[in-house]
Amino acid sequence: MPSNAFSKIAPRQSVLPVNEWVYDTLCQLILHGEFVPGVTLTLRGIAESLDVSPMPVRESVTRLIAEGALEVSNKRRITVSQMTQKKFDELALARLSLEPALSALALPLIDAERLKLLVDVDSKLDVAISTGNIGNYIKYNCQFHFGIYEASPSPVLLPIIKSLWLRFSPFYRIVAGRAGTQTLDDYHESAIDAIKAKDPDALAKAIHKDIQEGMEMLNDSIGKQ
Predict the structure, then answer these.
(1) Among 44, 56, 75, 152, which residue has the fewest nearby CB atoms (within 10 Å)?
(2) CATH node for 3-80
(3) 85-219 domain in CATH 3.30.310.80?
């Protein structure tokens, strides 16, 4: 149980229901690569780490199992999902199909404030790459992509894309950790330029290239978890 990961979470806002906060917290930790594939989680351990009762933890874990981020082993242990070639191929296909499309839909709704946020996040990402900080790289890469996607009020595509990221982010953390940040390129600058130019086709193309290059690097590490 990687209890040190829970020290990185923000305190719960009183207006947010406990069950939603627990779910959002677990999603954030998974998306940011704090849990690696195969690691065991326990309901009691999560509840103690978050200082909540077991009930909202059980509800959140059940949701994450349904979304494919967690799985139950033959010994009834709750673990972070492992990656397989078949799963990876379908994830790559889905990401390359959906994320460029949603980015193009989101572009008209990206205002100056959100653009500034994206530029700031990408600057932090560059620092993470130059300093070899894998944890920050995974976090800021996630924040950059969802900073674009969340501009669109998408009740269908956004939840699907989030579930895709929940499935591959832990595996991404392992591969990035092995390869090092110096091997990690992105097309975020091209995406920012497309947003400034208000060009949805260019933005979709930049996001497609960014995903394609990242997934190709990950594909080489299937079976080496």
Answers:
(1) 75
(2) 1.10.10.10
(3) no
